[in-house]
Design goal:
The protein has 173 residues and is mostly helical. 53% of the residues lie in helices and 7% in strands.
């Protein structure tokens, strides 16, 4: 008679995989892309997140048309972001990255993609009143450089505050 004894042996690789799975399932982290609640425009004290939402969805009461930049980016990039997340999950299981690392990478990619979308939006064109307001604000300057001149007619980029304060964070859920 043959006797077969099956024994569970904890190898270093098995332990590493077990720890990676525990790290992944125990993680209560969430990645966010957008504007920090406290960010405000200096002159108006208006929250940057509110201005971004107003631009994304429009505001008929202020005659501001919708110039969506987040929703189209999400629609166009979600499959790419999912692939990055999948690769990141594998790296977590291999012990090469943490959930925090993967969420940070995803956040940087998403915020960069959203900024790229903002930089490519030229329609709907700005109203004459908005352009005149921008010109009057810049009239104190002796000469405008190319970027400043472009910002006179470029939607979504006036002072650059909304564009430059778009960020990503990894937080506890």
């Amino acid at each position: 008679m043959w006797l077969l004894k099956i024994e569970r042996v904890k190898t270093e690789a098995a332990h590493a995989l077990e720890m990676a799975i525990k790290n992944l399932t125990d993680s209560k982290k969430v990645g966010k892309v957008g504007w920090v609640h406290a960010s405000q425009y200096i002159d108006s004290r208006e929250y940057v997140a509110a201005v971004a939402a107003q631009n994304e969805f429009g505001n008929p009461n202020k005659h501001i048309p919708a110039r969506p930049f987040m929703r189209p980016t999400i629609d166009q990039k979600q499959k790419e972001w999912a692939k990055i997340a999948g690769l990141g999950a594998k790296q977590i299981l291999l012990g090469n990255q943490t959930p925090n690392d993967v969420l940070e990478i995803l956040g940087l990619k998403a915020s960069g993609d959203i900024k790229r979308t903002i930089s490519r939006i030229y329609e709907p064109v700005l109203s004459r009143r908005t352009i005149e307001s921008r010109i009057s604000r810049s009239s104190g300057r002796s000469r405008l450089n190319k970027t400043q001149a472009l910002s006179l007619t470029k939607p979504l980029i006036d002072t650059g505050i909304m564009f430059n304060t778009l960020t990503n964070v990894v937080e506890d859920e």
